[in-house]
Amino acid sequence: MANEETRLTAPPTKAKRKRRWWVIVIDIVLIVIFALALAVSANVIYLTSVYGEPFYVNGASMYPTLNKNGYKLEDGEYVPLSWADAHNGEGDIVDYGWAKAGEKGNWRESLSRYDIVITYFESDYSDPDNLVLRDSASLKIKRVVGMPGETVTLEYDPSNAAWGKTTITYPDGGMEVLPNLYDESDFPPLSDGYVYEGLDRNRLGTWTLGEDEYFLIGDNRGANHSEDSRSRSVGPVKADYIQGKAYLLTGMRELSVSDEGAYSPEFRFQYMLFPWDYVRLDRWL
């Protein structure tokens, strides 16, 4: 009988398929998007835990500190916001940041001159003594100029027509002229030739504050640009009306307006600042 020859052979192997370059690119893009989304979410959690309350800015009362780099939607195109844009609307791009409010930290105890605060006015309350808000109440954002017990004197100063001269008289009789943060160069003429009118001379005077009152002014001190403590309808603001202290600007948001007229700041990635670019709002003096 003839010998049978047995041969052992390995199973055939499949040739490796090379991944196409565009598949690799898509994978990388998806990983980057996921990582960014995770980072943004983690950052929001951090900001919420440390500061507590987000805010957005509507209007130019705090220009040029706030909303200087924003945009308004005009005839389907974006144009830069200016000191004359009293109100913002659908599609406008406005500043967005974080404040400490409520029981978050000791912001009330640390409140000092030139801090930026988020507040209600007395007119926002139907029952001011019990802090009952009206349905139409709206938060404002202003700068602290006068502290409890002080006397604030606001005068016109030709050397700085935009901000004037602000003098503080302390309870012990001492006096100090406050430094000006801005001047006329910070309020340039508009494209249509409209020129900044300067400090509102119809709201100058002297105000003495109670032991629980603050004097709040918007940085845009021109006529009709900021309703604040200079106005008879507002006056000094009680401490209980102040809701928070602004600490950070973390970017800008796009405003959307509901059918009921409610504003909502919508996240847009291109207007987000990275943490190392955040703008501190608690360092002025």
Question: Could you explain the architecture of this structure?
Answer:
This protein has one domain: Umud Fragment, subunit A. The chain is of the alpha+beta class. It starts with 20 loop residues before the first helix and ends in a 5-residue tail after the last strand. It contains two helices and 17 strands. The strands form four sheets. Strands 1, 4, 5, 8, 13, 14, 15, 16 and 17 form a nine-stranded antiparallel sheet that branches. 30% of the residues are buried.
Summarize the structure.
This protein is α+β, with helices and mostly antiparallel strands.
Key words describing this protein structure:
285 residues; alpha+beta; Umud Fragment, subunit A; nine-stranded antiparallel beta sheet; four-stranded antiparallel beta sheet; 2 helices; 12% helix; globular
Chart the SSEs and their pairings.
Elements: H1 21-50, E1 52-56, E2 71-74, E3 77-80, E4 93-101, H2 107-110, E5 116-119, E6 125-127, E7 132-133, E8 140-146, E9 151-155, E10 165-169, E11 175-177, E12 205-208, E13 213-217, E14 237-238, E15 242-257, E16 263-266, E17 279-280
Antiparallel strand pairs: 1-4, 2-3, 4-15, 5-8, 5-15, 6-7, 8-13, 9-10, 9-12, 10-11, 13-14, 15-16, 15-17
Helix content: 10-25%
Largest sheet: 9 strands, antiparallel
List low-confidence stretches: none
CATH architecture annotation? Ribbon
Number of helices: 2
In whole angstroms, the N-to-C terminal distance is 109 Å
- What is the strand content? 25-35%
What is the CATH T-level topology? Umud Fragment, subunit A
Instruction: Briefly note the structural class of the backbone.
Output: alpha+beta
Q: Assign the CATH class.
A: Mainly Beta
Mean pLDDT: 89
Radius of gyration: 28 Å
Task: Name the CATH superfamily assignment.
Answer: Umud Fragment, subunit A
Describe the global form: globular
Q: Domains counted in the coordinates: how many?
A: 1
Give me the count of strands: 17
Keywords: Hydrolase, Membrane, Protease, Transmembrane, Transmembrane helix
GO cellular component, one term: plasma membrane
Family: Belongs to the peptidase S26 family.
Protein name: Signal peptidase I
